[in-house]
Amino acid sequence: MAIEDDVLVIGGGLAGVTAALAAADQSAQVRLVSYKQSTLRHASGLIDVLGYTPTGDGPLVDPFEALVDLPEGHPYERVGLEAVREALSFFDEIAGDAYDGGHTDANALVPTHGGTVKPTARYPVSTAAGLASDGRDTLLVGFETLPDFEAPLAASHLEAAGAPFAARGITVRFPGIVRDDAKVTRYAHLLDQDEAVTTAAGETTARDALADIVRSQLEDEARVGFPAILGDDHANAVRADLAERLGVDVFEVPMGPPSLPGLRLEDLLYDALEDASVRVTTGVPVVEYETGTSGQIDHVVVDRNGTEIPHRADQYVLATGGLVGKGVRSERKRVFEPVFDCHVPHPADRYDWFVDDVFGDQPYARFGLPVDRDLRPLDPGDEPEFSNLRAAGAVLGGYDFAAEKSGSGVSLATGYVAGQRAGMEARQ
Amino acid sequence: MSDAQQPTDDGGPGDDDFEPIQVFPEAEEMDLRPGADNCYKCSTCDTNCPVAEVDDEFPGPKFQGPEQWRLKRQDDHDIDDSVMKCSNCMRCDSACPSEVPLSQMHNTARAEYVEENMSKLSREYWRNRMLANYRRLAPLGSMFPRTTNFMMGLSATQWLGEKLLGITGQREFPEFATETFREWWTARGGAQVENADKRIAYFHGCYANYNTPEVAKALVRVYEHFGYEIMVPNQHCSGTPMFANGMLEDARRSAETNVRELAWALEDGADIIASCSSCSMSLRQEYPELFDFEGTEEVAANTWDAVEYLRVHEDLEGELEGTSVGDKFDDFAYHAPCHARNQGLDGQTVEVLDAIDGITAHDVGDSCSGISGTYGWKKENYETSMKIGSEMFEHMEDADATSGLTECPTCSMQMEHGTGYEITHTLEVLEAALVGPAEADGQ
């Protein structure tokens, strides 16, 4: 016997989880299988839709205005503008008050740890007080033991970028952290649990000690930004406590990997899966599939540390990620999709896969699956590879999410559409 | 594009006869280089490490694995002693988005540290050796279970254990059963069902044999209910506590016995079933990663978790539909052991129990219990172990249940230690639902 469900989603990132939730929303019995942990922990936790056009214009004020002009084959063009809006509303409902930005179509500008600003459609509440469009003067605080955030540099970078406020950066010692390479989860845990720490002033708690250190250096700035390590499970309480003790607003600056806002988003999404009774299997890859009599996928085989376990569903969603998530892989002579070997268009000569300018218009960035408007992957003859397989997220081709700042939005929109249609069809 | 414009590192475009140049000599031992090279330092593993989150002193899995491996390419580098603080929960394995075999690297580094850098005369060495080789001590305790239980329960014994051996006095030693599973099995005359088509070889492990034979008996009754012929081959410790303590040679000896015995069972047409998630993890993943006896791969590929096997080979959920467990059990706070999680079994118990009427298993989240086998028994780790476990204790107390459920013997100890709840194994619940208490008691 196989392990049976109505819809099987392969991949546990933003696209996969959204697909699973959208399918469950159609009353289907859904299972999500994910091999390794999703790259959400690499991600900033920001939900962008479109920051720049494919030709590099931007930052865009209104991403939706630009969506209608995207080239054929772009994932947004495949699903259409309305689906993008519906997917965002779907996300807003899941995220509740953990995210801001739903009040407007316009992009928000969120300062990053490099001192640049990123145009984004939704942002974690922890970053809300830091928006670059806000004119209040800003103090950025970095830590000696956390070299990923160089606060003075980020502050001067923000000013140089034309932010409408004065920004100043300081570097302090984080109370309670001894080693030079403590993990970000260690910082977060100290603040979450408000653990006892010893400072020059004696025994105190982590939150008190941090507030004391910053207060002594606060001038007349109206808000203070920290690298995004302010707690994990109790991030809101940590921020509120620090704000109260400092007497000014406190915000987080999203960081590179591993990222607490990405981790919190992952927790939020997986809690939603549990609430929606989606069955979740993690840590094991899908390695094979068998087709049925009419060429549809009959079942897939999951490898559990060497033992092969069949999983059968009526509908399948492939959301295994792109080149980083390994949903698209490459060898010397080919680029391929490893689970179903779906067609990935790419030049035969690998020297045509890239251009020499590192930040140039890289062809490989657009490698991925071509799909029809139902998000079914297409073979070289433009026919669906399988009648019951849809694809979502970074495994799709035809867009460069890093350049466009469209990664989360595409994952949400295509995950939502793929999951909803899979759920509807499975129920019939 | 022509080769004149762009130098190529192969025979040129269109040349299919690419022959890579041999840069490194053929590996004679296990080759960890590809694994180390796969690490692009995203640090996802570090954010999953339950030890690094609570212990400043621990540099995390990324250091213990690929970074330490690279440092070791220089002859003048010893393995850092912090490798002994790794609890071997193996969460970093499934965390890594780039397929770095972290626990394999930790296991080999730990073994090298113990071999090269730990004094064989030290208290730590002997304490660890003793903890790792529970399987050798248990038969002694089990010979006079009541006396042993009495002795081990004495505060004087606990005090001595802590002072002499560095085994924490905070925990109570698990009690030895008055009749081991194997004694019971022999007394009942072995298998009660013969079936050449449906045959399993049960790897019960040490704990279900010496301490919780009720779990092993539950497995027997559930499998006989489905018409399976059960074989109970000779077996040694799975090796889990030995890997965790860097006693790789002890583990190798045990593994050799197990692979040989289990490979024979495979020849008899049996599949291998384990009821302890760390035992199945060991047979499935650690053996093929660390050893290459004849049959290692076959044993790994044919080893199953006890519940998973029934789900795939029988209609377990269909069979459970409409059953109940009467007053025997109530709702559970369920903890998925790290080693079950790493086998993709994290959601299984909740899904399966869903089919039984009147009871629910509430998943208490993905935190680690913190005991990690022998780790939390060591005096120097006790506090860290309890700090890691605090999240699970909180979630257990928040769950709408007053007893616990898990598949791992040491997680079970930690759950009981932290909450005072009585802890049950999933197989005992299936036994109650499928076989019923009356029939079970009558056997």
Question: Secondary-structure blueprint of this entry?
Answer:
The complex is a heterodimer of chains A (428) and B (443).
Chain A: E1 3-4, E2 7-10, H1 14-25, E3 30-34, H2 63-67, H3 75-79, H4 81-95, E4 99-100, E5 108-111, E6 117-120, E7 123-124, E8 138-143, H5 151-160, E9 167-172, H6 184-192, E10 196-199, E11 202-205, H7 206-215, E12 223-227, H8 235-246, E13 249-253, H9 260-275, E14 279-282, E15 286-291, E16 297-304, E17 307-312, E18 315-318, E19 329-330, E20 335-336, E21 389-391, H10 401-404, H11 407-427
Parallel strand pairs in A: 1-17, 2-3, 2-18, 3-14, 8-9, 8-12, 12-13, 18-21
Antiparallel strand pairs in A: 4-7, 5-6, 10-11, 15-16, 16-17, 19-20
Helix pairs in contact in A: 1-9, 1-11, 4-11, 7-8
Chain B: H1 33-38, H2 44-48, H3 50-54, H4 61-71, H5 91-95, H6 102-117, H7 123-132, H8 134-143, H9 145-153, H10 155-165, H11 181-187, E1 199-203, H12 205-210, H13 213-225, E2 229-231, H14 240-244, H15 248-267, E3 271-274, H16 277-290, H17 296-301, E4 303-305, H18 306-313, H19 316-320, E5 332-334, H20 338-341, H21 348-353, E6 361-363, H22 382-398, E7 403-405, H23 409-419, E8 423-424, H24 426-434, H25 437-442
Parallel strand pairs in B: 1-2, 1-3, 3-4, 5-6, 5-7, 7-8
Helix pairs in contact in B: 4-6, 11-13, 13-24, 22-23
